[in-house]
């Protein structure tokens, strides 16, 4: 037994951060070294880019997160300069497409919107912070209710989840009343829990990996002395000796020097594509690795809120109060957010409804719905994708990606079961939109991969039977000291935003891991 065991954590997103925090809080002497391929963007590591008020600084932070599509960073890392070939789709700000069209790009014609973030804090520096709890069959069935509730409670603490954010909004309440009318039964609309800290002035400080790290990122805390974060440090391989990992091989992307760092335990939380990629590159290749890829098909639309309908439940004063709150942060004006959660039977989808004073794209001044006094809602249904072995990512030993790791090919298809639920949800979105107002954009299904909630590729399971990659505590089958974390561990078909669930699974994994070092 080593008195001061070293734990290597690969990836600095919310999940790697949850592992680091839980491990250090559970173990009195262990040290955690966290490796992150991307740059640190904010003074406190992993803070949400949405909290940056200066628009230029915010743009730069997003650009620096865009890995192979990151312009100046691309050049600074010694990658060939020049224009990145435009793909068919544009990545969301702060992310880069996996299939970005340039040299070393992944191949994902059937999952074209798949994207990643490469920066300290991962996608958690860019996320929308929606943190609903999974329900019914969205949950895993191998953790009993009591333990599960405690894990979710802990995950909510780590992420600073507010269950009643913006609950005081009169506009939000009016939208909920109209949603309830259109829904005409259970489940009832409710406010959407979000991760962040409400400020005294009514604005929100959004949560990122910074709040999950908590004391680890506070130099005054004794835990910080046992934690080290190395940015621009790409883990190329887990070094394995039989059934044990003995360390990680790391390239310093500033100097390109590669060193091996000895470790007593390795946690890989490098997102749902790069976690299985690193395992594959390390010769850790369970049959289910990369398979069972799922996400949520997403149908969205924007609706201009009807004055007549909204006035039934809200006053002009409510509207003014809502607009005043949004004006507190003009760069990131978020307020009333509502949802109708997943429930079986009857509502096998999640609906999210975000209030906005402007549509997400500029309308011409003479457009009949431009400058709508009561504003707009952006609505989206998330639907299930049933996990199938056919859907997934494969890795090539011959063709390397832009980092020199085994390149990825993603294969993915919706089946009749999904098509039927998509059609149902689209019809509901139309009905609800008509109750709320007038469509600015008709309901439309986004391209595969658009949810950014990629699941299943390192899924957990109760038996080493080829249908899972890790055990119910996230320990990779056949290895004593290798853990996986992130949305890839979720084995179920879900419709909700997955980060809260993945943090809960990480808390469980970290507690198990702490007992082994
Ligand atoms: P990530 O946050 O992706 O972090 C993984 C990190 O690992 C990355 O920083 C990456 O650079 C690093 N890495 C990869 N490979 C290596 C390597 N070999 N060596 C070293 N480092 C490596 N989820 C929700 O639940 N609710 C939302 O509202 C929501 N909205 C979103 C909105 C946007 C715009 C985006 C981009 C995402 C959103 N998500 C949302 C998804 C959410 O951000 C992810 O679920 C979450 O960040 C996953 O955490 P993670 O730590 O597993 O992975």
UniProtKB/TrEMBL annotation:
Keyword Oxidoreductase annotated: yes
Domain Glucose-methanol-choline oxidoreductase C-terminal: 397-506
Keyword Lyase: no
Domain (Glucose-methanol-choline oxidoreductase N-terminal): residue spans on this chain: 234-298
Swiss-Prot/TrEMBL keywords: FAD, Flavoprotein, Oxidoreductase
InterPro entries reported for this sequence: FAD/NAD-bd_sf, GMC_OxRdtase_N, GMC_OxRtase_C, P2Ox-like
Top-rank taxon, per record: Bacteria
Cofactor: FAD
Family assignment from sequence similarity: Belongs to the GMC oxidoreductase family.
Name assigned to this protein: GMC family oxidoreductase
Species, as recorded: Microbacterium gilvum
Taxonomic placement: Bacteria, Bacillati, Actinomycetota, Actinomycetes, Micrococcales
């Amino acid at each position: 037994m080593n008195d001061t065991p070293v734990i290597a954590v690969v990836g600095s997103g919310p999940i790697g951060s949850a592992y680091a925090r839980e491990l250090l809080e559970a173990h009195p002497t262990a040290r955690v070294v966290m490796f992150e391929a991307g740059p640190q963007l904010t003074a406190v590591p992993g803070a949400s880019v949405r909290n940056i008020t200066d628009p230029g600084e915010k743009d730069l932070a997003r650009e620096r997160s865009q890995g192979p599509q990151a312009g100046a960073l691309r050049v600074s890392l010694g990658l060939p300069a020049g224009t990145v070939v435009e793909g068919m789709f544009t990545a969301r700000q702060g992310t880069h497409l996996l299939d970005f069209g340039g040299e070393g790009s992944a191949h994902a014609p059937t999952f074209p919107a798949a994207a990643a973030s490469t920066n300290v804090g991962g996608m958690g520096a860019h996320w929308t912070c929606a943190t609903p709890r999974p329900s019914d069959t969205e949950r895993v069935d191998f953790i009993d209710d009591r333990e599960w509730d405690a894990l979710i409670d802990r995950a909510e603490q780590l992420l600073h989840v507010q269950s009643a954010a913006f609950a005081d909004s009169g506009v939000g309440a009016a939208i909920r009343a109209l949603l309830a009318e259109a829904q005409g039964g259970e489940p009832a609309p409710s406010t959407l829990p979000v991760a962040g800290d409400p400020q005294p002035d009514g604005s929100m400080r959004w949560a990122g990996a910074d709040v999950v790290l908590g004391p680890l990122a506070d130099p005054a805390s004794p835990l910080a002395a046992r934690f080290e974060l190395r940015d621009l440090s790409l883990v190329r391989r887990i070094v394995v000796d039989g059934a044990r990992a003995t360390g990680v091989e790391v390239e310093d992307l500033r100097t390109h020097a590669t060193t091996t760092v000895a470790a007593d335990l390795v946690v890989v939380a490098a997102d749902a594509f790069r976690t299985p990629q690193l395992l594959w590159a390390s010769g850790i290749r369970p049959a289910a690795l990369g398979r069972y890829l799922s996400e949520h098909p997403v149908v969205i639309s924007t609706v201009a809120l009807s004055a007549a309908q909204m006035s039934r439940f809200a006053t002009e004063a409510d509207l003014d109060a809502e607009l005043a709150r949004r004006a507190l942060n003009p760069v990131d004006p978020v307020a009333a957010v509502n949802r109708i959660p997943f429930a079986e039977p009857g509502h096998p989808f999640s609906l999210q409804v975000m209030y906005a004073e402007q549509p997400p794209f500029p309308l011409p001044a003479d457009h009949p719905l431009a400058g709508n006094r009561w504003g707009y809602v952006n609505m989206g249904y998330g639907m299930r994708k049933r996990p199938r072995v056919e859907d997934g990512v494969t890795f090539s030993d011959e063709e390397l990606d832009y980092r020199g790791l085994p390149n990825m090919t993603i294969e993915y298809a919706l089946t009749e079961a999904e098509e039927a639920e998509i059609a149902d949800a689209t019809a509901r979105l139309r009905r609800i939109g008509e109750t709320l107002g007038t469509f600015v954009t008709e309901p439309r299904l986004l391209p595969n991969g658009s949810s950014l909630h990629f699941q299943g590729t390192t899924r957990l399971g109760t038996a080493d039977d080829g249908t899972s990659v890790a055990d119910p505590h996230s320990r990779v089958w056949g290895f004593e000291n290798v853990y996986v974390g992130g949305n890839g561990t979720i084995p179920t078909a879900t419709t909700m935003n997955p980060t809260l669930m993945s943090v809960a699974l990480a808390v469980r994994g970290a507690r198990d891991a702490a007992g082994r070092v």
